[in-house]
Write the structure tokens for this entry.
Amino acid sequence: MEKAWTAPVAQDQAAEEAKRRRRIAYRIRRAFAYIFLTALAIGFAVPFLWLISTSLKPPPQIFKLPPQWIPNPFVWQNYYKAVTAIPFFLYLKNTLYIALFNVIASVISCSMVAYGFSIVKWPGRDTLFMVVIATLMIPYVVLLIPTFIIFKNLGWINTPHPLTVPALFGSAFFIFLLRQFYLSIPEDLTDAARIDGANDLQIYWNIVLRLSRPALMVVALFTFMWNWNDFLGPMLLLHKPEMMTAPLALVAFQGSSRVAPKYSMLFAGSVLSTLPLIILFFLFQRRLIAGIMSGAIKGGG
């Protein structure tokens, strides 16, 4: 009789011990994950922190060994020199114009093309979509010379048109991203709208766009980031100083063979040109991650 009572007690104790070990193992794994992610985050943050630190240093401390992390003294005048030595705010305005135009044009064009490749059914749709996706395999540098010749013949060199007008025709990557999201929208919604007499434009505007706001946010933020940081395109197509963008303006601080590089102003200008992207990320961080995750989870074929 005593053995009959002690057996369940022993089993309960063994179960509790197993649960305790699983909890400890789970906490250890989480601790290691947090330590790894924290170290990774610090590793990514170090270059930016060094950028900020160097932007506030006097010139003798920039290349000091061992490196001096905290400037002594803090030279805030580096930022004033950076924005007055060249028309820095003019270059920021040019960059902002190109980036915002591309955001609006890309969201409209890519969403409409993706709608045609996902919601509307027509012969040869999937074949043409594969052709559009195949353009992603073409390296960007291969297209530089042909596109430069086209823009030169159109008389668009030294104008913002080569950096803005192509966005009106969509981007294969964003078309693919939005199409995958649109395929997750139930067909019952669009079929019900057609039964009620709605045409494709009304379905696109009133149903599809409203349901795809997270994906559209991803397209908008990525487009803004890529155009804000674009250096190669403006370098090839914009040669007049008044048309330059912020990435090109930073080159002016590097000097030439006759002029010593102005590193303190270069780092200060880099911080100022990076600041809008950081602000955008913190403002729309949750929506950006939600848009990427929803596209990854809902996207279907």
Q: What stands out?
A: Residues 256-260 have pLDDT under 50 and may be disordered. Residues 2-55 form the longest helix (54 residues). The domain at 79-298 is CATH 1.10.3720.10 (MetI-like fold). DSSP finds 15 helices and no strands in the chain.
